[in-house]
Amino acid sequence: MAAEIPRTPAAFVHPAHAVLLAGGLPLFLGGLLSDIGYAASYQIQWTNFASWLIAGALVFSGLALLWALVDLIRARRRTGRVLIYFVLLLATWVLGFINALVHAKDAWASMPTGLILSAINVILMLAAVWIGFASLRAGDRT
């Protein structure tokens, strides 16, 4: 007989936290796509779009980061998942802030650094969203 690992539903993400968490990903992705558009066409408006999208993503991810910090402080046991989630959001926000400063420069001066930072931001935010929305876990509850 095979050993069964009991699967228990994890604590669900609060709906407001879910909106904040999920709101940052498309904005960071839009910033990356705007950077790709600028690299392909050299139209300065694409960097303006990227700057505004990154600023919006910083608002959403910053509020999600604050929520994750409160959850980390309130957690009875600091599991690896909660800590990794917080660190991913923190890294995403810090890198996004640096990306916003890079995009504040002249249009071509922000390339290719802005494009690379935008790609890394999308990957980090995608990982944070993935961990934040993980609903089933083997073993005990958080």
From TrEMBL:
Location of the DUF2231 domain: 14-132
Presence of keyword Lipoprotein: no
UniProt keyword terms in alphabetical order: Membrane, Transmembrane, Transmembrane helix
Transmembrane in keyword set: yes
A Pfam cross-reference name: DUF2231
Segments crossing the lipid bilayer: 12-29, 49-70, 82-102, 114-136
InterPro entries the record matches: DUF2231_TM, UCP029509
This protein's name: DUF2231 domain-containing protein
Protein source organism: Tardibacter chloracetimidivorans
